[in-house]
Amino acid sequence: MDEAILFGVLFLTLVMFAAGRIRYDIVALAALVILTVVGIVPPSEAFLGFSHPAVITVAAVLVLSEVFRSSGIVDVLGRWFSRTGRALTAQVTSLSTLVASLSAFMNNVGALSILLPLAIRMARGANRPYSPYLMPLAFASLLGGMTTLVGTPPNIIIASFRKAATGDAFTMFDFTPVGLGVALAGVLFIALIGWRLIPTRQAQSTPGETIEIADYMTEVRVTEDSRYVGRLVRDLEELARDDVAIVGLIHRGRRYGAPSSYQIIDTGDVFIIEANPEDLRSFVDETGFRLEGFSNIRSDVDKAVASDDVALLEAVVVPNGQIEGRNAAGLHLHSEYGVNLLAVSRSGARIASRLSRVVLQAGDVLLLQGRTELMLAALPRLNLLPLADRDLRIGQPRRLVIPVAVFVGALLLTIFGLLPIHVSLVAAVTLLLLSRFITLQSAYQSVNWPIIVLLGAMIPVGGALESTGGAARIAALVTDLGHTLPPWTILAIVLVTTMLLSDVVNNSTAVILMAPVAMGVSEAMGASVDPFLMAVAIGGSSAFLTPIGHQSNTIVMGPGGYKFGDYWRMGLPLDVIIVSVSVPLIMWVWPLGI
Q: pTM above 0.85?
C-alpha cells in the first residue's frame, strides 16, 4: 500500500514539475507533507533533508559564485575577449570554452551570469543576433558543471548517495575523467556545428531599439491651473501607479533623469513619461497637464532617460526569483526600489499591454531605468540578471585574488582529506564574510532559496523511494529488460532515462529520484554502484532538449528570442554525442565489476 501511495505522489509531483504552474519548491514541500501525513516518511525525519551536507554545500557554492561574479572578473574577461576577433566560430568557441571552464569551479548559473553581458556585447559589436551566442553559452555551462564535484548540484547530490552506499563520497575530481571527456566533445560540437543548427532570430542592438521605448514616450507640461502644482512628484507616482513611468523632468530649463520623489512640481515643468495611449489619456485627464506631443521626444529621451547618473538597463527575470509570477503593480518598483519599468520583452517581442498587469515570467527581458546606485542595489534584491553593462559596472576590479585563494585553499583541505567539502566551503564563505569581500545581505541574496527548499524536501522523498522498496521494484524491471542485452545497455538506459527526466523537471530532482534506482540496478546485477551513479550524474546535467530543464536554458530564452522547439535542434545531437562518449568512458574509468 505504501508503495502505491508513494508512486502516486511521485507521479503527480512530476506532472506538476513539468507543468510549471506552481513553483517547484512548493510542489516538493507538498509531496513531503503528504508522505509524512500518511506515515511513509517518519515525522522525525521529515526535515532532516535541510541539514543534509549536499544542501549546505550547494548553498556555499552559490555564495562563492556570487563572490566571483562581483570580484571584477567581468572587467578582466572583457579585455581578453577584445582580442578574439569578429569571426562567429571563434567567438562562440571562446565563449563556450570559457563558460565551461568557469562552471567547473562555480555554479553554472553563476558562470553564465558572468559571461552573458560579454556575449551580448560581442553580438552587438558584430551586428549579429544573439541567438547563435546565447544557447551555446547556456549549454556549455551545463557541460562544464559535469567535470568537478562543485560544478553543479547533481554532482554534490550523487556524492552523498555514494557515501550512503559505500561509506565514501565521490571526491572533488572523481567526476573529471568522464566529465571532462564529455565536456570537451560537447564544446567541440557546439563550437563547430551546434550553433549552426539554431534558428536565426531577429538581431537586437540597444535597449531603445530592442523594445522601441520612444514609441511609447511623450512629454506633458504642467499647466498653471493643475491641482498638482506645488505638490511632490511622489503624488504623481501614487496617481500613476505602475501604468505610467515618470522617466524624466525638465524643471526650469534643467533636465533630470529619474526625478526624485520629493521634487516639488512647478508650473511649466515638463515631464517625460512612458505609457500606452490608454493610460496616457487617463493620466492627462486626471492631472490637467497639457500634452506636448512626440515631435522632439527622441532628443529629450536620450538626454533624460540615460545620463551620467541615470542608467538604462536590460535585465532578465531569473527562474524562481523574487519577481517571477508577480506583476509590476505588486512590486512597487519605483517606490520600493527607485527604478522605473519601461517595457517588457518576451521571446524577443515587446508586450504591448499595460505594464502593471503583465505577470512576469522567467526569461522575460525588462527595460529598467533609474539612478545608477539604486539600480546596483535593486538588481540583486529583485533577482534580475543584467544583460549588458552599458551603464553599470558589474564587479569591483582587483578583488579577485583573495577570493580565489580562499576557494583554492578550501578545495585543498578537502582534496587532502582534512575537511569534508561542506565544511571547507562553509569555512571559505565565513572567511570571506569576515574579511568583507561579500556582505551578509549579498550572501543571503545569492542563495537560490527555492533550490535549497527543493533539495531539503526531495531528499526525504528520495529516501522513501528506497525504504518502501519502490526503487528496487523499478530496478528489477530495468534489469529484467536487459537480461538478453549486454551490461553496457543497462548503463545507457539509466543515463538516458535520467537525461529525459531532467528535460522536464529540475535536474536535482531527477538525480534524487534516479540515484536510488541506479543503486538498485547495480545491486540486482551484482555490479559496482559507481558507474551507475556516474551515469545518473551525467544524465542529470544533460538537460538540452527544452528550456525548462535547467535555469541556464530558461535565462537565455527571452534574450535570445528562442521558441520552445528551438532547443532540441542542437540539444538532440548533443545528447547523442554525450551518450556515445560517456558510456565507454564510464565503463573504462569505473568498471562494472561483474
A: no
